Amino acid sequence: MISLQNQIILITGASSGIGTACAKVFAGAGARLILAARRLERLQELAANLRGEFGTETYLLQLDVRDRLAVESAISSLPNAWSEIDILINNAGLSRGLDKLHEGSFTDWEEMIDTNIKGLLYLTRYVVPGMVKRDRGHVVNIGSIAGHQTYPNGNVYCGTKAAVRAISEGLKQDLLGTPVRVTSVDPGMVETEFSDVRFHGDSDRAKKVYQGVQPLTPEDVADVIFFCTTRSPHVNINEVVLMPVDQASATLVNRRT
């Protein structure tokens, strides 16, 4: 098992859900954290909590991963003490809408494509060269069961997560011959702000997604990510698909009520 003491971990989408859960589990292991998200106040609150509980050193980036120039600037201007990133967790992602493809919103499509695919690519492109140069590193991409199984009205979101899966596979192949590892962690139902975002803040509709089901928690997913990143250096866990016991596929869910 690899020690993460003093390793530098960059987490995108760190202000909520799986990103926040990752920050906590890695803080507990003694890592130093670069926390990136659009909502700076949430990052500041998280950083204060981590400092109080674990004494964690943090560096905050108010960042929209869709903005390539902002990503380039953020990575290139990291202080020397924070520039050698050991682990990149590409967690920033979202779903917008649940419409038939021929009735979908162009704005929703662009937000999903720009965040889930292009944002992930931007961070990877600017961070991984340093990993290759230093002969160490690990990229963890947060995918989804939607990247394995398309479901009705999921069209573009499923397409973006299928892209994440393909990009992860391609990156692993391109890094062959280096010690840099690549993992895709692909959860099913996780109770986060995901559904609130998908339904544009309609919390009543969002709650129905998890009604009668015990979904995964962000901590469950963070635990799997932590496991993947702490294996022996010669071990690469390529892909993990995890779902709650109440879910058998993207569309098969056992509801108790």
Explain this structure to me?
This protein is an alpha/beta fold. The chain has a single domain (8-242), classed as NAD(P)-binding Rossmann-like Domain (Rossmann fold, 3-Layer(aba) Sandwich), CATH 3.40.50. It is built from eight helices and seven strands; from the N terminus they run E-H-E-H-E-H-E-H-E-H-E-H-H-H-E. It has helices at 17-28, 40-54, 68-76, 106-134, 155-174, 194-198, 203-209, 218-229; strands at residues 8-12, 32-37, 58-62, 87-90, 138-142, 181-187, 239-242. It has a seven-stranded parallel sheet, with helices on both faces. Strand 1 (8-12), helix 1 (17-28) and strand 2 (32-37) form a beta-alpha-beta unit. Helix 1 (17-28) crosses helix 8 (218-229), helix 3 packs parallel to helix 4 and helix 4 (106-134) runs parallel beside helix 5. The longest helix is centred in the middle third of the chain and has 29 residues, at 106-134. The chain is globular. The mean pLDDT is 96.
Q: What's the arrangement of secondary structure elements?
A:
Elements: E1 8-12, H1 17-28, E2 32-37, H2 40-54, E3 58-62, H3 68-76, E4 87-90, H4 106-134, E5 138-142, H5 155-174, E6 181-187, H6 194-198, H7 203-209, H8 218-229, E7 239-242
Parallel strand pairs: 1-2, 1-4, 2-3, 4-5, 5-6, 6-7
